[in-house]
Amino acid sequence: MGPTSMMLITTSLISALTAVITAMLVSAWIPLAQRLGITGRDMNKPGKPIKARAGGFWALLGITFGLLLLCGFYAWNNALTYVSQIYALALLALLGGVLGFLDDMLGWKKGLPARYRILAAAVIAAPLSVVAINRSSVFIPFLGDVQFGMLYPLVLVPLGVMGAANGFNMLAGYNGLEAGLALILFASTGILGLLDGNVLIVQSAMILGAALVGFLIYNWYPAKTFPGNSFTYGIGGLYAGLVVIGGYEVAGVVMFAMFFVEFILFIRGLKHGIYKENFGIPNGEGCLGEPYEEAYSVTHIAIRALQRIRGCATEKWVVYLILCIQLLISTVVITAVYIYG
Q1: Residue closest to 104 by CA, chosen among 151, 38, 150
Q2: Bridge-partner residues for 282, per DSSP?
Q3: Are 158 and 225 in contact (CB under 8 A)?
Q4: CB 114, CB 165: distance < 8 Å
Q5: Rg (CA), the chain
Q6: What's the CA gap between 217 and 239, in Å, rounded?
Q7: Is 63 within 8 Å of 18 (Cβ atoms)?
Q8: What is the DSSP letter of 153?
């Protein structure tokens, strides 16, 4: 058996174990959270049933476990090339999860003040900045390698982590949406790694994706637990980590396009004096109505589009539509990279 086959088998086993461990942790958390009162209302359903919050923390713990197993595999084989990058990703997951869990424990619409979250994002990004300390340039199509010097690891990397973490946090609130988007983005980045021959990115994407599958068992419609900020902060940081370590900054930003649209719509809401919520207004027939006269989120646009196309915008179809858009964006980016390199 060659080294490539051994690596593929090992990564597959670690990924499978990561999915199982994640599912077990989330399953154990749901009744515990309900007993402790760590719950929230499922706003897109009639009656707004109560579900466990902060389930995403355990997905990040599963990811940390899987990445450390991968690190152990490399150490066992005295192949230390990727150890620092794997540790950086594991720390991103753990630190992001801890920050988000603290935010979740403080309560919905309470949480950490924005200034503290921004400062904390810089702390979360520290491991990634360390492994990127010797990088100073970004390849930009038509411009080539653009030099940023120390601004790259000390400014651009923390900004990327903060932007990705907050992006996932903004486009949220529907069963399976956050984890589904993350699964597509991680898989897409893994394909970029496959095209580039970057083994670490492929392995990491497999492990991260496996944990998301384990979490989605309990987060897909009808969800038994919400991901919470515990999930979005860490997952956003991990996406930035894969992009930085792989050197896919431009592709990563383009694949994140829908989150930029979400931010623009959010700013539009602020200008209209509205601090928007993504939720729709459920009726007794399982359809969602628009919460505002104008659209201030991608989810609002999806509700409006589905009302016109299907006559009814259900929570599942809102998620399906947004995931399909993300899949289309990612496919276009991967195709462009494949054709133009």
Answers
A1: 38
A2: 288
A3: no
A4: no
A5: 20
A6: 21
A7: yes
A8: I
85-90: long-range pairs with CB below 8 Å, 24+:
85/131, 85/200, 85/245, 86/200, 86/204, 87/127, 88/127, 88/128, 88/130, 88/131, 88/241, 88/245, 89/204, 89/238, 89/241, 89/242, 89/245, 90/63, 90/64
d(CA 134, CA 271): 41
Only one residue has tokens 């355990």, namely 58
The tens digit of pLDDT for each residue in 142-191 reads 888 999 999 999 999 999 999 999 899 899 999 999 999 999 999 999 99
Cβ atoms of 19 and 5 closer than 8 Å: no
Please report how many Cα atoms fall inside a 13 Å half-sphere around the Cα of residue 151, on the Cβ side: 6
- As a whole number of angstroms, the distance between CA 308 and CA 118 comes to 39
Question: Do you find a cis peptide bond into 222, omega within 30 degrees of 0?
Answer: yes
Which residue in 95, 153, 94, 160 sits closest to 124, CA to CA?
A: 95
CA distance 187 to 209: 7
Q: How are the residues of the chain apportioned to helix, strand and coil, as percentages rounded to the nearest 5?
A: 70, 5, 25
CB contact set of 64 (below 8 Å; sequence gap of 6+): 90, 93, 94, 97
Quick check: 208 and 186 in contact, CB under 8 A? yes
Exposure string (b/e) for 295-318, b if CB count within 10 Å is 16 or more?
Answer: bbbbbbbbbeebeeeeeebbbbbb
> ∠ at Cα 18 (218, 49), nearest 5°?
10
The per-residue pLDDT for range 39-78, each reduced to its tens digit, is: 999 999 999 999 999 999 999 999 999 999 999 888 887 7
Helix (H, G, I), strand (E, B) or coil at 41: strand
The model carries a pTM of 0.95
